[in-house]
Amino acid sequence: MVDYVLRRLLYTIPSLLGIVVVCFFLTRLSGDPTDLFLPIDASEEARDAFRVQYGLDKPLMEQFVAFFYKALQGDFGNSLRFGEPAISLLAERLGATIQLALATLFIAVGVGIPAGIVSAYYRNSLLDVAVRSLAAFGQAVPTFYWGVLCILIFSVWLKWLPTGGSGGLVHLILPATTLASTLVALLARVMRSTMLDVMRQDFVRTARAKGLGEFTVVMRHVARNAFIPVLTVIALQFGVLMGGVIVTETVFSWPGVGRLVIQAIYARDYPVVQAVVFFFALIFVLSNLLADILSAVLDPRVRYK
Amino acid sequence: MRHLRSPVAVTSLIVVGLALLATLAPGLLAPHDPAEQSLLARLAPPSFLGGPEGHFLGTDQLGRDILSRIIYGARATLLISIAAVVISCSIGTTVGLVAGYNGGRTDALVLRLIDMQLAFPVILLVIAVVAVVGSSVLTLIVVLGVSGWPQFARIVRAAVISVREMEYVEAARAIGAPAMRVIFRHIGPNVLSATIVFATYELSRMILIEATLSFLGLGIQPPTPTWGGMISEGQKYISLAWAASVFPGIAIASTILAINMIGDVLRDALDPRLSGEDGR
Amino acid sequence: MTIIRRTFLSGLMSVSLLASQFVGVVPASATEEGVLSIAQGFDPVSLWPNYSTTQEQINVGSLIVEPLFWVPPDSDEAQPILAEGYELVDDKTVRISLRKNIQFTNGEPFNADAVVHSFDIFTDIKTTPAYGRYSVVIDRAEKVDDHTVMLYLNQRYPALNLVLSQVFIVPPAYWQEVGGPDGFGSKPIGTGPFKLADWVRDSELVMEANPDYWGQAPEGIERVVLRPIPDDMVRASALMAGEFDIATNVPIAASAQIGGQSGLEVLSIPSYRIFTVSLSNLPGQESPLHDVRVRQAINYAVDKEGIIKGLFQGQARSLNGQLLRKEQVGFNPDISDYPYDPEKAKALLAEAGYPDGFDITFKFPTGRYAQDREVAEAVAGMLGAVGVRTQMVSLEPGEFLRQLSGRELQPMGYVGLAPADDPDLQLSQYRSDWRYSYVNNPELDTLIDAGGSELDRAKRQEIYSKAMRIMHDQAHVLFLYQGVDLYGVSERVDGFAPRGDQRWVIYGMSLN
Q1: Which segments cross the bilayer (chain A) (predicted)?
Q2: Fewer C-beta neighbours within 10 Å, C or N terminus of chain C?
């Protein structure tokens, strides 16, 4: 087991290095920060001074070598906008995003999984059609639209919840619900379809034949087995969630990493973009590893190869 | 094909058929030129709610006919999402098959690539590409198509590995039968059902990504309308004129719902184990 | 079977019950006594006002760090803040006298040393690159005595007030201690009416009144709280939900609602931002636009009034066929907008040899200016009606700026430039060798040069109104409109008076 985890961790290194390299060149392709950091009517002299100060005047390969050498030591450089280390800017905003992500996951699993189970169990009933329609609806409405709608209804008309910002649990409700909407829909759908697959399998018939209660059969045998692929799906959704996080944090002025990175992308603040992308990649890789380990624990048939 | 005769399936087929018709021949359905503006008649409510005659679903922020724009918008919207899914599905399936079947070094390499691609935020990829080559239907198809392959590859690869070492495949190999064919026959239904479910999900995700890109100012070039673009533009006027964003939203939702339903029906139809019983 | 059904459903219901318990008990946060709360588009990066020329940052930073002078809206006279006044010793020498008995909040004295030090920072292009355009005219500043500073210029410079009002005075010892701009930007110390209390980036910035403030402190404001809300519509909604006293840049779509809500009003400030479509006639950028008749035709083809009334509901102003505003030196009262006349446009196109029109690329940003994409689509629609078929290219704001400053925004590009309030700063952007000029007209260049070193107001008026006439007749740009900035303001705020460049000061403001 330990061996397996170690090996998997080792495997992530080339992927992460690859991401660092790709990200470096992609950000460089996207434009020169000088145009964005200085006023449009800045003098040529000021522009040159800016480029020299941040090493943007050097040949690309030289910049890359310097960057890569430092990145290997965990230093992604200083933000062009803030003058602070990109990593510490990331750390500052991490708490807010983790809060949001956990709340989202809580809602998504809490609503999506039961909905999927119900939908599968009462397959083709009115309830099933209702769940599936709602799921399709949830998937079909863009995150930003949900967000704006929620604000209009719950903040402006009903005045129940704040329009955004961070604070207590109150501030978390709207953004988390918004971000969860697509995930709920996806989980419900995946849960439904894997449930259906599992229900057809022999061991379920056996369990039924043994005279076990219907509830026990469904929960212990079917749902539990169906949960394994769902776990993988959740872990895989990280990349997709990233896009949602950016939009949600923007709409609800949530001071998290998503807003940091979209501002950095727009401003061509290379070091910050690189740090955030690397960090998200790391999280992604680790959460997938965790999902694999968990499914191994839940399903003894998975072998550590 | 009795699956296709249920009312849900029929409705879904009609919706998708309409969307496809709009994609192929929007001129047949649309009452107006989608680009025809009237700054004096902007943000009008639907005609059945007291709006001006001739604009059944009202007008948008430039006084253009919303119904006509939804009809013309089907083309770019569906083209982007379907083409992107076809691309990612074919790349993913091929890569997954090769990796799963060959194993070893190929497999390891593919796994690393998958991790890399999945962990890389699509949005950054799109901004970088859009910044360099500009935002067009083709750009979006290529970027979204290329970025979506890993999930398909994972599904196929896992299925191939699960049967690769089974006895009858070994046996088939031993008697000289092309193992790939055996594998394909065996995993076919399984992979197909997972892939179809996933592809329909991807289809809706692509439509949403296009909408989100419009929201972030990276949508495709006007005057080509897209549903996502219409929502993101109309969203700014939601408290003045809800029609401009709600109707394109309904277009997206009903199309996605219909595609999903057809996906499910197809899945059931293709899966021989499901016919004849209701799955309980 | 039935048992399970019930179990499932009750499970679902308990989830929704749980959710409903969170909702409903929580009132939205309301504005507090003595606290001025402001929502703006983004969080400042630095609270050192000379860090950038972005007004949202300067507005915040200048509550703490003060300048020598301030140029109020609708005036080009410099009002003294930390200075008592200035006089011209000769064309290139300025004597500035400073207020006495002022201290920075860390106890350092405000004196000539601090001012000279701040000028040194201001003119150091490495530290203050954003102000290179202004600092280039300054040679050096010297201390005469504790409360007098002599400023030596490199050239005769008409827009001196603009330069003097942009220099913010920082305490020298503290500046060294925190290591310059980066350290100072996150923990500023100044002479101003407020002190930084707490700053959580991208979330909330809190300032407390400076009890020892030297001047007239704003009445009733004990704290200022700023929160960044990036989405325009959400910012307006937050104001309507009662979370703020002031929301900047509210969208026109929300202005009627805000105005209709009791306790709120909409402040509409004519902006310095002038919107045009550049029509390149630069050598090497060949297109039909090199023919003046084509450029004129384009001006006739676009219904500017329609855009102002339709898209902006009147919240924009006509340009009177020129780049300078009515209030500016050089405004030419004899010029008016090209009337909307599609027939004339078609005739001019035919005369220029394009009876069937032509195809042309039209670039514009999405998300940089208010309703930018809509305006671009409207313009393209009108041009299409006379046969100028545009290939529209929407640009992400960052890419837009790159193309603009790289002279790639051609042959047609929708831009809104907002230079500081002086005709020289406005017009030199159209000099043929300017980095992002798309105009090539030697006659205009001569006038721009003449105006740039002329100190006499009447002569400047003459020079610039001639330049306006040339630009109009030659139709070097498609004249669109002057923008308007909209602020949503609560009734309890008095004296909030932003300038057309979105700069505002707390002096004179109060909270009921």
Answers
A1: 9-29, 98-122, 134-157, 169-190, 226-252, 272-298
A2: N
Enumerate neighbours of C (3 or more CB pairs within 8 A).
A, B
Chain B residues in contact with A141 by the CB 8 A cut-off are: 249, 252-253
Judged by CB atoms closer than 8 Å, whether chains meet at C202 and A161 is answered as: no
Is the CB of B118 less than 8 angstroms away from the CB of A186?
Answer: no
Contacts of B252 (CB under 8 A, 6+ apart): A140, A141, B77, B204, B207, B211, B227, B228, B231
Strand order in the sheet with C246-247: C194-200, C204-209, C223-228, C35-40, C246-247, C477-490, C264-279, C412-417, C358-365, C388-395
Please report, rounded to a whole number, the percentage of residues in chain C having pLDDT higher than 90. 60
* Domains of chain A: total: 1
A236: domain CATH number? Answer: 1.10.3720.10
Q: How far is C123 from chain B (nearest CA, A)?
A: 34
Q: How far apart are CA A231 and CA A250, in angstroms?
A: 28
Q: Does A92 touch chain C (CB under 8 A)?
A: yes
C435 touches chain A (CB under 8 A): yes
Whether chain B has a CB inside 8 Å of the CB on C393: the answer is: yes
Which pLDDT tens digit goes with each residue over C48-75? 999 888 888 899 999 999 999 999 987 8
Tokens representing A203 are: 């061991």
Assess if residue A79 is contained within a domain.
no
pLDDT over 80 (residue B170): no
Dihedral over Cα of B45, B51, B56, B59: its sign: negative
Give the rounded distance of the alpha carbon of C351 from its chain centre: 40
Indicate whether A156 belongs to any domain.
yes
C-alpha distances (whole Å) from C150 to each of A190, C155, C166 are: 75, 15, 17
Residue C511 host element (H or E)? strand C510-511
| C-alpha–C-alpha distance, residues A107 and C19, integer Å | 9
Q: Looking at the predicted structure, is the pLDDT value of residue C27 above 60?
A: no
The larger pLDDT score, comparing residue A236 to residue A305, is at: A236
A22 is a domain residue? no
User: What residues in B contact C397, CB-CB < 8 Å?
Assistant: 217
Distance CA B64, CA A109 (A): 42
Cis ω for the linkage preceding C411 (within 30 of 0): yes
ipTM confidence: 0.76
Asked if pLDDT for residue C493 goes beyond 90, the answer is: yes
Helix (H, G, I), strand (E, B) or coil at A145: helix
Nearest to C431 by CA among C409, C447, C420: C447
Measure CA C360 to chain center.
30
Residue in the structure block whose two tokens are 């008649």: B41
CB B205 within 8 A of CB A132: no
Q: Which residues of B touch C232 (CB under 8 A)?
A: 236
Residue A9 lies in a domain: no
Q: Which of residues 82-101 of C touch A (CB under 8 A)?
A: none
The answer, for B235 touching chain C at a CB cutoff of 8 Å, is yes
Write the DSSP assignment of B213-227 as a string of letters.
HHHTT--PPTTS--H
CA–CA gap between residue C80 and residue C437 (Å, rounded): 35
- Count CA within 13 A, CB hemisphere, residue B147: 23
Give me the pLDDT at residue B159, please. Answer: 78
Q: Which residues lie below 8 Å from residue C20, measured CB to CB, with a gap of 6+?
A: none
Average pLDDT over residues B98-116: 83
C476 within 8 A of C232, measured Cβ to Cβ = no
User: Residue C469 pLDDT > 90, yes or no?
Assistant: yes
Q: Which domain holds residue A145?
A: 86-304
DSSP type of residue C103:
B
Strands (E), C179-299: 194-200, 204-209, 223-228, 246-247, 264-279
| pLDDT of res. A301 | 57
pLDDT of residue A198: 75
Cα C276 from Cα C287, distance rounded (Å): 18
